[in-house]
Amino acid sequence: MLKESMKMAWSNIIHNKMRSFLTVLGVLIGVSSIIALITIVQGATGSITSQISSLGADKITIQAMGTRLKQGLNENDLVQLSRVNNVSGVSPTVSGKTSLVYDRNVKTGVSVEGKNEVYFKKESDILARGRGVNILDVNNKNSIAVIGYDLAKELFFGTEPVGQQILINGNTVTLVGVLNESSGSILGSTNNTVIMPYTSAMKTLGVRNITSVDVYMSDANESESITNDLTTILNSAFNYRENTFSVLNMQNIIDVIGNITGMLTLLLAGIASISLLVGGIGIMNMMLVSVTERTTEIGLRKALGAEPAQIQLQFLIESIFISLFGGILGLILGIIIALSAAVIMDFTFTITAWTIILAVGFSAAVGTIFGLAPARKASRLNPIDALRHV
Amino acid sequence: MSEILNMLDIVKCYFLDAEELVVLNKINLKINEGEFVSILGPSGSGKSTLMNIIGCLDVPTSGKYILANNDVEDLDEKELARIRNREIGFVFQSFQLLQRLTALENVELPMIYAGVSPENRHKRAAEILGRVGLADKMNNYPNQLSGGQQQRVAIARSVVTEPTILLADEPTGALDQKTGQQIMQLFKELNDEGRTIIMITHDTNIARYSKRIVNILDGCLNEGAVS
């Protein structure tokens, strides 16, 4: 009987091609917008998350504002921080802007950063040529530096910078390496920066306190306990004063972004669902017209022995067919839209089985819900009245 | 001959604004297997209501109706549908063929609801269409057939499930006289083959084809002359 009902439903859909097409279109638009929006938001989220991860998902950044008596962290604090469980190393950052002289070129306002050996070990792909800062450079406050890609090109066009001597804020410094070209991130790039051992940088720049430290984790899953341990140390270092430091965990930022985009997905899917609702109303409208048009047919079928349930099934299957058809076409269109968006907005396109199930399930549900009332109406028609209907 | 239809004091009333309208007033009717009965009456006599009750499309207000050993009283919609499918073959004045289906598919319709397998349906429908003289028109759509041919398809549809009663409502009403006579001839032949036929009509000339005429007037039955 189910097969017969399907056959009858299909024949009716084919018979009213234009009307069926328009109704399918209603569902198609709803489903495709849901699929496209969800997929685009998920893709964009993935791209943002991976960008942030590339800044260091395995890194916790400490900013120390300090107190009036202690305006930053000292060597002893760094040692304490590096001893926290699951921490593989700490790298302080000292930064400032100063002048740089090579040959007869004078550049002012050059960004100088002080780092340690841990930084060059962790960010191993940062170096293009030469060597980075090592532990002896830090301990001996060696006057050496690693130069950024653009800066090297500008000052040493055609000659090898490694081994050359430049003046940084009046101090002679030997260049030992060149950095790779940095693609840049939301935190800026290192292309116009000179990196020195942080001890030398403090001396050169006249900085007395370490106010920024990157803590590298050996296990990023332990970020919460590490953050707690770091906070404990920093609290005691700054005498439990408030607002003396901040601990910034990249994983937290990723989590926050995940929350925001999750809400965004829900919101957009909700808005797109409205169009699916309109599509559902379209189905209901079409089915009601169809029932009215075919009143005589329903009467005849009842006279020939069709049970109310069989009439209901026939009309229900018709609306589910229309809706499923729209759902499948909408899925395809939605994927095409999302794929184009992925190419244009440059993110990786991924579609989950969950999305497909959602599209097909949603459209089947719409067909059932909005087809039920017309189908019931058909099944309840009185055969005498229906046969008399002209 | 066995009795296949028995109506005892059938009453049908309609209520219009608290006013009671008696359409059928204590109808008593017995029909035996193999009969060809005409229910003859003018419009407004209650003959359509009687036909609806005989065809189990409607239920009486009171009285007892037994059709092929089924007491039709207190049956629900589903059971009435089954009875219609098994016991009644309808022929309507306006043929009532589905325009989207071929002659063959139209004849197959009642067998779908009887649960006959597709192969058997095709075979049986083709057989019956051959019997009513439309072997070469099986795959035609209703609008490709003349009125007489369409009514033949409808008649084929009504007998294809071998129902207890063939119930025809003004079967020649939409046909010209000559075609009408051919259709009546077909009914006669079907009756000769042993089928029980009940025909509702207002036309005395048509009623003459039957073996027994029952007159209905203002909701009351009178046994008429047998032709």
Describe this structure in words.
The complex is a heterodimer of chains A (390) and B (227). Chain A is α+β, with helices and mostly antiparallel strands. Chain A has helices at 2-15, 17-56, 75-82, 117-122, 135-140, 149-155, 198-205, 223-237, 250-293, 295-303, 308-345, 353-380, 383-388, and strands spanning 59-64, 87-102, 105-115, 127-130, 144-147, 165-168, 171-179, 193-197, 212-217, 245-249. Chain B is of the alpha/beta class. Chain B contains 7 helices and 10 strands. In chain B, helix 5 runs parallel beside helix 6 (177-192). The mean pLDDT of chain B is 90. The chains are: A alpha+beta (390), B alpha/beta (227). The A-B interface holds A 1, 4, 11-12, 15, 296-297, 300-310, 383-384, 387 and B 52, 55, 57-58, 77-78, 81-82, 84-86, 88, 90, 92, 96, 98, 100, 109-110, 112-115, 157.
Write the layout of secondary structure elements.
The complex is a heterodimer of chains A (390) and B (227).
Chain A: H1 2-15, H2 17-56, E1 59-64, H3 75-82, E2 87-102, E3 105-115, H4 117-122, E4 127-130, H5 135-140, E5 144-147, H6 149-155, E6 165-168, E7 171-179, E8 193-197, H7 198-205, E9 212-217, H8 223-237, E10 245-249, H9 250-293, H10 295-303, H11 308-345, H12 353-380, H13 383-388
Parallel strand pairs in A: 3-8, 5-7
Antiparallel strand pairs in A: 1-9, 1-10, 2-3, 2-6, 2-9, 4-7, 5-8, 6-7
Helix pairs in contact in A: 1-11, 2-9, 2-11, 2-12, 9-11, 9-12, 11-12
Chain B: E1 3-16, E2 19-32, E3 36-40, H1 47-54, E4 62-67, E5 70-71, H2 77-87, E6 88-91, H3 103-114, H4 118-131, H5 147-159, E7 165-169, H6 177-192, E8 196-201, H7 204-207, E9 212-217, E10 220-223
